[in-house]
Design a protein that fits this description.
Layout (H helix, E strand, L loop, with lengths): L1 E8 L4 E10 L13 E5 H8 L11 E5 L13 E14 L2 E10 L7 E5 L6 E5 L4 E4 L2 E4 L2 H4 L2
Antiparallel strand pairs: 1-2, 2-5, 3-4, 5-6, 6-9, 6-10, 7-8
């Protein structure tokens, strides 16, 4: 789901825009014959849950499937990203330009966007960059009648 809102403040001739993007959780995919599994020593399981799994030995291990999207061990949540842009509109005859700043990822999320399952534990391979900004000048040409209010 994505949304965009843009408004030009008339008296100041300043452009303000907001972009919101919301994505569902990433499902861990496994190809046929391969699944992501985590082999956990039973001592770790006992320390976490206070008891051993049924039929497990204290010196043994327990295999947990990480790629199970129904009973998720490694859960992901819905991701929401908000970006804003502030720009001053400058007019030169029939040309309209704006000089402004983009503020990306205002919620400062750094959710994972990919996983690798070639290790014994699923590890994050890519993350969304944290909050950032950039300068972005742009120029539009057209008739002055189309840009007046």
């Amino acid at each position: 789901m994505r949304g965009l809102a843009t408004y030009i403040i008339p008296k100041a001739d300043v452009l303000v825009s907001l972009t919101v993007r919301s994505q569902p959780q990433v499902l861990l995919a496994a190809t046929a014959g391969t699944t992501a599994q985590w082999v956990v020593p039973n001592s770790v399981v006992q320390a976490a849950y206070g008891k051993l799994p049924i039929g497990a030995l204290p010196a043994g291990t327990t295999t947990i499937s990480i790629g199970d999207n129904v009973n998720r061990v490694y859960a992901d949540t819905r991701r929401t990203q908000v970006d804003m842009r502030f720009a001053k509109v400058i007019r030169f005859g029939r040309t309209r330009s704006d000089v402004g700043i983009d503020l990306n990822n205002l919620l400062n999320t750094n959710y994972p966007t990919g996983y690798t399952t070639t290790y014994t534990i699923a590890r994050t391979t890519r993350c969304r960059a944290a909050r950032g900004s950039r300068r972005h000048p742009s120029t539009r040409r057209g008739s002055s009648a189309s840009t007046t209010r």
